Amino acid sequence: MKFRIDRDALADAVAWTARTLPVRPPVPVLAGMHIVAGGEGNDDRLKLSAFDYEVSAQVSTEIDVEEAGTALVSGRLLAEISRSLPPHPVEVTTDGAKVMLRCGSAKFTLLTMPVEDYPSLPEMPPAAGAVGSDEFAAAVAQVAIAAGKDDTIPMLTGVRVEIEGETVTLASTDRYRLAVRELHWKPERPDFSAVALVPAKTLADTAKSLTAGAEVSIALAATGGAGEGMIGFEGGGRRTTSRLLDGDFVKYRSLLPSEYAGLAEVQTGQFIEAVKRVSLVAERNTPVRLSFSQGEVVLEAGTGDEAQAVEALEATLEGEDIDIAFNPGFLLDGLSAIGSDVARLSFTTPTKPAVLTGKPPQDGENPNYRYLIMPVRLSG
Predict the structure, then answer these.
(1) How many CB atoms lie within 10 A of CB 183?
(2) Domain hosting residue 143, numbered range
(3) Is the domain of 57 the same as that of 74?
C-alpha cells in the first residue's frame, strides 16, 4: 500500500472515524482503524472505518494512490499522530507488518494488526429520505438534552424517531422533562412510516459531525420492513450506522397538556442570566422559585438558614398569578434549547408539568419544539 494525502484531510478523516473507537475494546482488533487505499474500483479513494459492534463509522476521501492495499492499525495512536503532523502532504506506505507515515521531516512507524480478524461493517439499511444537515443537527441537540444518562433504564437513554410521510418527530425524556421536536424532511416515498429508538449520545454526536454536507441521508427500514434494528446516516463522504435500542418508549403525547390555565412570556436572554445568577445560592437539588404576576416574574433561591438570592424581571402573564419551582439545571437546558428571543411558559397548576416553548412566528401556530418540565413541589 502506498498513497499520498493532504495533511488536514487525513487528520479530519481520522479524527471523525476515531470517535467510534471503543474505550475498552472487547477484542483487541476493535481498537484498530481499518484502512483501505484504492481497489474495488475506487482507485483514488481512501476509506477509513471503525466499529465497536454497536456503532460503525466510515469516511471516504480523495488520495493519490500509487499502490492499493489494506491495513489495520491502532486507531487512537493514528488519531494522535495525524493531529500532530506538520503542515505538509503525508505519504503512507506499508512494509511487511508495519505502516509508515512520512510528513515533511517527521516519520512514524506503526505496527499493524491482523486485517483478517477485523469484523465486516454492517450493511446500511435502505435509504428512507434526506433532511438538511444543519436543521437536523439543531433539532437533535434540542431533544437529546432531555434523554436520561442512567443506563439502568436503556429506553430512557434514547431518542425516539418517528417518521410519518414528510414529518419527522424526535422525542426524549428522563422522567423529569420531555423534549419534542418536529421537522420536515424529504422521504423516498410519500407514504413512508417508521419508528426507531436511537441512543441519544450516538445520535447527537453523529448529527453534529455530519454538517459538512448540505444534507443528511437517513437509512431506516420501514415499520415491519427488512433491516430492522439498525439506523444509518450519510453525508459529506461520511457514513455511520447504529444499533437501535429495544423497549417501548413512554406514550409521551399523553403527557403534553391539551389546555393551560396560564401563559407567561419573558425575554430569553435575560431569563437565562437571571436563573444562572439566582441558582448560585441553590444547594444541590434545590429549586429556583418563580413567582409570576402581572408585569413581572420574581426569581428566588435559597432558604432562610442558607444564602439567598432574589431577582425580578419583566414578564407578561395571561391568567392568575402563580408560584412554581423548577430544577435550575433543567430550566436552563430548556431555555438554551428553544431558539427564540422570547421564552413562553405555559402552565396549569404549580404541581403539574409546565411546557416551555419559543414564541411562534405567528399567533395560533403550534411551535415545532416543546420542552415539558416537571415542577418541584414547594414545601409549606
Answers:
(1) 19
(2) 127-253
(3) yes
